[in-house]
Predict the 3D structure of the following.
Amino acid sequence: MTNTRVRADNLVGLLLFLGTFIVYIKTLCPTVPPRDSAELITVAYTLGIAHPPGYPLFTLLGKLFTFIPFGSIAWRVNLLSAFFASLTVWLTYLISLKLTRNIIAGVLSALALAFSLFFWKLAVVAEVFQLNAFFAALLIYIIIIWAEKREIRFLYLFSFIYGLGLTNHHTLILLAPGFAYYVWVNDRTVFFKLGNWGIMAGCFALGLLPYIYLPIRSLQNPYIDWGNPENLKNFINVVTRKQYGGMRLDPNFKNMPFSNPFVQVKVFVYWIYQNFTILGLVAGILGIIKNIRNNIRVFGFLISVFLMTGLAFMLLANYPLERELFYPYITAILGRFMLPALLIFAIWIGIGVTCVSNKKAALLFLIIPLLSLTLHYKEADRSRYYFAEDVLNNIFLSIKPNSILFASGDTTLFGCWYMQQVRGVRKDIKVISSKQYDWRAAQILKRWPNLTKRKIDSYKSEYEFIDDIIKNNLNKARVYSDLYQPYKFKKYGKHLAPNGLIFEFITNPSRQAKKRHMLKNNYLWGQYRFKSPLSTANPNDYFSVEIVDYYKMAKMISGRLTTPSVPRP
C-alpha cells in the first residue's frame, strides 16, 4: 500500500470522526437526561461511586470532561458519549477497511453505525454504553491486526485493553468466545505457550487497575457511595453486581418464566431493520453471504460476537418481549446493550457493498446511512431535551425550605442528587433514598444524625427505618415523597395529601385541612414551568414519556384522599 493511499485512508477516517462528532454535538442533550445519566453525571463531577459494578473508568474519564471550560457540567459529561461514539465510528471504518480493502465499504460501515437509531441516541447522553462500544471496536481491530501480523505484542496490548474495558462494562466478556475462536483458527500454538499466558495475564490485570479507585474513594465517604466498597466484602459485592443478581440485567424480572425465544429472535431482527432500514438489512445479508464465501474464519469470529452480544444477551436477560405492556420499557433498557451487535452488522453492510464491482454503483449504497440520518434525526435529537430538568425544578418548587423528601424513582432520586451536588440547587432539602436501604441508610444517618434517635443496626427493615424518620420529623419539618412509592406509606394513607408533583405528609387530616391543601395544590400547578413542553415528547422515547406519565399520574391523584394504587417502577 502506497504512502499516498495510507494518507488518503487516514484522512477519510479523520473526516468521519469529525463529521459524526459535529452531528452528535448538534444533537447533544444540553442538560441532565433522565434516569442513570443523572447519577453518572453526578458521580463523575463529585468523584463518587456509581451503581454496581461502580463504573470507575467512566467516572474518571467523566471527571476529565467536567474540566472543559464551556457548557453545563451535564453537557460536558454528555459530550464524553459523543466523543467515544465518534471514535467507535472511526474504528468501525478501520475494521471494515482492513477486511475489505475497499474505502467505500469502510465509509458505509462507519456511517451505517453512526446514524443507526440506538447508537445515535446513546451518543448524545451520558451513559456507559458508547465507551463500551469503543472498547469492543478497539479489541476487534487489535485482534484483526494480530491475525495479520502474528506478533505477540498485539496480544499483550489486547489483554491490557480487555482488562481496561471491563472496568467500564462487564458485557465485554461476551466477546471472549469469539476472540478465543479467532485466535485458535489463526494460531492455536498461542494457547500452549505458558510464558505468553503469564505476560498476557499480567497485562490484563494491569488493565483492571481502575477498580482500585472504588475502595480508595469510598474510604473518603463521597456523597454517592453506592455499596460502600471500602472493604473487601463490599468491594466484591459491588464489582460482581450482587445487588442485581450478578449478570442478571433486571432483578424485577428474575422470577419470570423463560421468555419465548421465537419472539426474542423476531424482535432482534426487527431491531436490526429499525436501526439500518430495509436497505441496510438487505445489504447486511449480502455481506454475510459474501463473508461466508470469502473468509469463513472471519465470519465465524464476527457471527460469534454478533450473536453473543445480541441475541444471546437478549435470551440471558429474559425480558418478556411477548408482553406488549413491557415492550417500550424493554426496548429502552435492552436496546442500549445492542451496540456491539449493531457494530458487527454495520461491518457486514460494508462487506455487502463489495458485491458490486462497479465503483459508481457501489456509491449508491451510501443512500443507506443517508436514509438513516433522515429517518432517525428527529428521534435521536436531544438538543432541546429538558424533560428531566423541568420535572426536577417543578418538584423542588413544590417543597418548602429545610424539608425532607423521600425519593424512589430513578429520575427523581438521581435527578435530585444532580441538582443538589452538581448545580448546588436546594441543598436545604434532605433527599432520602428509600430503595437502597442496605447501604444508603447508614450514610444518610452519618450525614444527618438527627433524623432518628436510633442506631442503624436496630432497624429490621427499610420500612421500619422510613417509618421512624417520618415519626421523628413530622412535627419538626415538612415531609414529602415522590409518587413512586405509595405502597411504602399505606399506614399514612389519610395523612398523605397531593402537593403538585409529590405527596406531603400532613399532621391534620381533617376535611377542612385537606381542602386548604387542595387550594395550595392547585396553585402549584399554575407555577410549573417547562423548557420542553410535555406535548413535544416523542412517543417512541420511553424516558420522556415516563416523565409525561408522571405528570399525568400527579394530576390523576390530585384531590384523592387515599393512597392511589400505582405500580412500582
Summary: The radius of gyration is 26 Å. The mean pLDDT is 90. The first strand starts at residue 404 and ends at 407.
